[in-house]
Design brief:
Low-confidence stretches of chain A: 162-169
Number of helices of chain B: 17
CATH superfamily of the largest domain in chain B: Aldehyde oxidase/xanthine dehydrogenase, molybdopterin binding domain
Radius of gyration of chain B: 25 Å
Mean pLDDT of chain B: 95
Largest sheet of chain A: 5 strands, mixed
Order of helices and strands of chain A: EEHEEEHHHH
Radius of gyration of chain A: 16 Å
Structural class of chain B: alpha+beta
Number of domains of chain B: 3
Oligomer: heterodimer
Strand content of chain B: 15-25%
CATH topology of the largest domain in chain B: Aldehyde Oxidoreductase, domain 4
Distance between the termini of chain A: 24 Å
Mean pLDDT of chain A: 91
Number of helices of chain A: 5
Bound molecules: FE2/S2 (inorganic) cluster
CATH class of the largest domain in chain B: Alpha Beta
Chain lengths: 169, 674
């Protein structure tokens, strides 16, 4: 099949690429943009290791075609690095043992971050529901839930940072 | 090793994150059948290109018994669903998968033999052998039922579960004309190297294995796999770097799962509850070929656990079936052994109307005890009393129906471990033979070494496994690393200190850091290091058979906890795996040998909503090692399932004989009771 051109605003930078129409957003992010925080943990859309923000909403990037993200805005963990809420979450993930092997962590962070942006003070049930699409085989989730809990209540309402630059690669 | 900060910043380097210019991706054509003759195989790279066999032939086979060695690629016969038959390459994953269309395989399907008990007497599951039994041993001493007033029998089973680390298997391999370099997530870089060398008949100096950040392992990543041999061979043949990343579906069908054990147990006792003996059959579903013969005897050896049972005698067999070879999964034989013992002791308690704790205390070892199988334990009675007092069993038993379990953890201490410490330009690098994959070995390494050397922990860095940086090594499994790894670490640290003294007259941290030192030691270790552990669970099964776990507790003697909150975090994570084994984890086949668990969720891994928390209590009786630590990693997958099964059993009013136990089975068993 003919390649198609897609133009994705990825972590504030514009990525224009010719891709096969079947290319998953996950592969676009990992292979073309070389952003490897986003992981592939399954081929059955169950694990959530591939979670990214698409127009600000968490999606499993293995269930979205790159062409579906054309002209839209995608953020991966790398693109949220300096955001204060995400920074706090990362600190707490380390502090509360919210990770062991770390393979699920980017997806977990993004799902937790999205929850806290919607609701700054979630209860345990809401936290567990918000990350229920993200599988962690190591921690038993306890440390993750504790990490999110300890960030809750903090100001979580800032806007996504504006794109620092528009670069054509 | 990527630091924890790198990992949360998304800067970990897992195997799939490694890329080289010109690298090709590999995909495998696999058997669509659990058992079939292969009439022809055309296209791709096949056994004609790579006529290798897997290195380990298992305990039951002699060196010459080639019939039990798994071929790297099947050519005439497919012995399990998903067995690799041919490999293709492509410039990316998509193209490699497309190229699978170029492989043609013609099958003559045969009826698969999937049940290990049937396989005991059935025709052989693979050609060229006379029997499916690959390991056949009597363990313990024969005894007569003589004075026992009660003999109870039951058939118990732990079904197979997938190890399911979130990162599947994977490998990148490159060849520069003289040396093959392999990057792979692993528990033991040295095992991967040795496996590749043995299969392909290469010298150890010509292969380097480098561990990548490892996204969970749980036993899966301790060894070498057919796909790795193919990747290594292709890198050498094509002279371009190659990559293979396993899909989850491939994982569920064709990577080694754990458990898969049936026990026909008999307990001999007095009406008072005193156990006189335990005996029976242990039958391990070894899967195809000879690799998994290790576990049946090992299970039988430790069945009596923390109890002083004077008689024990088991017929332990590993039996081939038309499934992928069985492998170790967190606990690796220990959970199965404990399941047999604890289920029988609960059965006896119910029979004589005794409290499950009283009967355990009655049979606990009051003194040092050597079991009929040769397992030596210290007195366990005091431990049990403390454990259940701390977990408030008596109080809970008045208001609910807790299930309890006790076990003796036997870490894989023997053979020891290696370590290298290199001091250079004021920094200290450490390599260990056992490769970490989420257990935070970096923390105890830094803690012990900074204490020993009197330096700031921030200058100490634990490196990933690398066979060129460390001569020999064993591996990280069997709850062993903090024991034998830390022991080797301290020994090498002593060597470094002695060296500094020799050079500078006296040891100071300053003298150390101003010099260059490089010391290595393989600290061999014989004997065992057994510790006691106990669990408690409360659960309710509703009318539909859905189970809610309302309480889980653990009381473990972990020796000196080197980094206490890491120990707790290990226990919490393992506990959820234990709950998963009881409630849902399973990789069932239908009668035709097709896999019913086609996804991560189908295979029963619990999500955050389904996972309970566990209260953890640590008892810290120091071990004989200078660091004082004992084992911990596998304890929760041993003790949680048995306690939870009992709690469900009591709540539902049924007898539970196997894991997992599904809601339908609970409902059906209940209707039979009524
Ligand atoms: S990779 Fe598993 S859900 Fe996307
Ligand atoms: S930390 Fe390993 S999967 Fe979550």
């Amino acid at each position: 099949m003919k390649n198609v051109k897609v133009n994705i605003k990825l972590n504030g930078r514009k990525f224009e690429r010719e891709v096969e129409p079947r290319t998953l957003l996950l592969d676009f992010v990992r292979e073309f943009a070389d952003l490897t925080a986003t992981h592939m943990g399954c081929d059955t859309s169950n694990c959530g290791a591939c979670t990214v923000l698409l127009d600000g909403k968490p999606v499993k990037s293995c269930t979205v075609l790159a062409v579906q993200a054309d002209d839209r805005e995608v953020r991966t963990l790398e693109g949220l690095g300096e955001e204060p809420l995400m920074k706090r979450l990362k600190e707490e993930f380390i502090e509360k043992h919210g990770l062991q092997c770390g393979f699920c962590t980017s997806g977990m962070l993004i799902s937790s971050y999205s929850l806290l942006r919607k609701k700054s003070d979630p209860n345990e049930k809401e936290i567990r529901e918000a990350i229920s699409g993200n599988i962690c085989r190591c921690t038993g989730y306890h440390g993750i839930v504790e990490a999110v809990k300890s960030v809750k209540g903090e100001t979580a309402r800032e806007k996504l940072p504006e794109s620092p630059e528009l670069v054509r690669r | 090793m990527s630091s924890i900060t790198d990992i949360v910043n998304g800067k970990g380097r897992f195997v799939d994150d490694i890329s080289f210019p010109g690298m090709v991706h590999i995909a495998f054509a696999r058997s669509n059948y659990s058992r079939a003759k292969l009439l022809y195989v055309k296209g791709g790279y096949t056994a004609r290109d790579f006529p290798y066999f897997m290195a380990s032939a298992g305990e039951g086979a002699t060196e010459e018994d080639l019939s039990l060695r798994a071929p790297v690629l099947a050519s005439k016969f497919a012995a399990y669903l998903g067995e690799p038959i041919a490999a293709v390459t492509g410039k990316n994953r998509y193209e490699a998968e497309d190229n699978l269309d170029s492989v043609e395989i013609d099958y003559d399907p045969l009826k698969p033999i999937l049940d290990p008990v049937e396989a005991l007497n059935s025709e052989p599951v693979i050609p060229g052998v006379k029997t499916n039994i690959i390991s056949d041993r009597y363990v313990g001493k024969e005894f007569s039922a003589g004075e026992a007033e009660i003999v109870l029998e039951d058939r118990l089973e732990n079904r197979r579960v997938a190890t399911n680390p979130l990162e599947t298997r994977g490998i990148v391999a490159a060849y520069d004309g003289t040396k093959l370099t392999v990057w792979t997530p692993t528990q033991s870089a040295h095992s991967v190297r040795d496996g590749i060398c043995e299969s392909m008949n290469l010298g150890k100096e010509s292969v380097r294995v480098i561990q990548t950040d490892t996204g969970g392992a749980f036993g899966l990543k301790g060894g070498v796999y057919p796909e790795y041999i193919v990747a290594a061979s292709l890198a050498m043949k094509l002279k371009v770097p190659v990559k293979w990343i396993e899909t989850r579906r491939e994982h569920l069908m064709a990577s080694r799962p754990g458990r898969g054990v049936v026990g026909n147990m008999r307990i001999h006792a007095m009406k008072s509850g005193v156990i006189k003996g335990i005996s029976g059959d242990v039958i391990v579903d070894a899967g195809a070929y000879g690799g998994a013969s290790w576990s049946s005897g090992w299970i039988a050896f430790q069945i009596t656990g923390p109890y002083a049972i004077p008689n024990a005698y088991f017929h332990a067999r590993s039996v081939m079936t038309n499934k992928v070879e069985q492998g170790p999964y967190r606990g690796a034989g220990r959970p199965e052994a404990s399941f047999m013992m604890e289920r029988m002791i609960d059965l006896l308690a119910d029979e004589i109307g005794a409290d499950p704790l009283d009967i355990r205390l009655l049979n606990a070892a009051k003194d040092k005890f050597r079991s009929p199988t040769g397992m030596e334990i210290e007195a366990s009675a005091g431990f049990m009393a403390r454990a259940f007092e701390k977990m408030e069993y008596r109080r809970l038993a008045r208001e609910s129906k807790p299930g309890i379990s006790c076990f003796a953890l036997i870490p894989a201490v023997s053979d020891g471990e290696s370590c290298r410490i290199k001091v250079e330009r004021g920094r200290i690098n450490v390599w260990l033979g056992g490769n970490a994959h989420g257990q935070r070995h970096d923390l105890w390494v830094a803690k012990l070494l900074s204490g020993k050397f009197g330096v700031d922990p921030s200058i100490i860095e634990l490196q990933l496994g690398d066979t060129d940086m460390l001569k020999e090594g064993v591996g990280s499994w069997g709850s062993r690393s903090a024991i034998v790894g830390a022991n080797a670490l301290l020994k090498v640290a002593d060597k470094v200190i002695a060296h500094v003294k020799k050079d500078k007259g006296a040891y100071t941290a300053r003298a150390l850091l101003s010099g260059d030192y490089d010391e290595y030691e393989y600290a061999n270790e014989k004997g065992m290091l057994i510790s006691f552990c106990a669990n408690l669970a409360v659960a309710d099964a509703d009318a539909a058979g859905n189970v809610r776990v309302s309480k889980l507790k653990a009381y473990y003697d972990v020796g000196k906890a080197l980094v206490p909150d890491v120990v707790v975090s290990q226990i919490k994570g393992g506990a959820v795996q234990g709950v998963g084994q009881v409630l849902s984890e399973n990789i069932e086949f239908d009668q035709d040998g097709q896999l019913m668990a086609a996804s991560l969720s189908d295979s029963g891994v619990l999500n955050s909503v389904q996972s309970p928390d566990i209260d953890v209590y640590l008892e810290e009786v120091p071990s004989r090692f200078p660091h004082g630590a004992k084992g911990v990693g596998e304890s929760p997958t041993i003790g949680v399932p048995t306690a939870l099964v009992r709690a469900i059993e009591r709540s539902a009013g049924i007898r539970i004989r196997k894991t997992p136990v599904s809601p339908e089975e609970i409902v059906n068993a209940r209707s039979r009771v009524k």
